[in-house]
Amino acid sequence: MAEVKVYNKEGAAVGSMELNDSVFGVEINEHLMHLAVVAQLANKRQGTQSAKTRSEVSGGGIKPWRQKGTGHARQGSIRAPQWTGGGVVFAPKPRDYSVKMNKKEKAGAIKSALSSRVAEDKIFVMEDLAFDGIKTKQVKAVLDGLKVDKALIVIADKDDNVILSARNLAGVRTVTSNAINVYDILKYNNLVITKDAVAKIEEVYNG
């Protein structure tokens, strides 16, 4: 099992803990991580874009001028694509962009992403991240103590003091352990996670 240091809020190492290899030490599968990121971004798309083709634009039922003898190019309708106000060629229509992944693929992708952070020494396990109030300076001090800037903070349960304190920091995102995803793990340079969150993640993904 991989052994990592446990830090306090001042950034000092106060102990160590072993991470479960079946979650934090798996063989990194880049294909699954790529598929998970593609699926997440695609599933965010609304797919509501729409424009009218020439058959859907009103008007244009009559030939604008006779075929020959006018000196103009021949035209069949003022709603043809080359006319202002005409229809759109291959107009976009509402569609479903969603990409499906099965449960094992999703779990494998998250394990790979977590393992990649461990392999790169970019995971910081915190003893706890409890704050008395909402102060951005408190989270900034924690990150400064760890010497990290861009970070994904993972906490075990929803804590408004932590979430709201970190909200205004550029390059920092806070999520609960049940909301982690591959895109966020890979997007942020460092993973700052509490011991309780590690335990919850191992409980869910072990196996």
Short description:
This protein is 34% helix and 15% strand.
Walk me through the structure.
This protein has helices at residues 21-24, 30-43, 103-119, 136-146, 160-166, 182-187, 195-205, and strands at residues 2-7, 13-19, 123-126, 151-155, 172-176, 190-194. A hairpin with a 5-residue loop joins strand 1 (2-7) and strand 2 (13-19). The longest helix is centred in the middle third of the chain and has 17 residues, at 103-119. It is α/β, with parallel strands linked by helices and 207 residues long. It folds into two domains: 2-45 and 98-205, Ribosomal protein L4/L1 (Ribosomal Protein L4, Chain: A); 47-96, no CATH class.
What topology does this entry show?
Layout: E1 2-7, E2 13-19, H1 21-24, H2 30-43, H3 103-119, E3 123-126, H4 136-146, E4 151-155, H5 160-166, E5 172-176, H6 182-187, E6 190-194, H7 195-205
Parallel strand pairs: 1-3, 3-6, 4-5, 4-6
Antiparallel strand pairs: 1-2
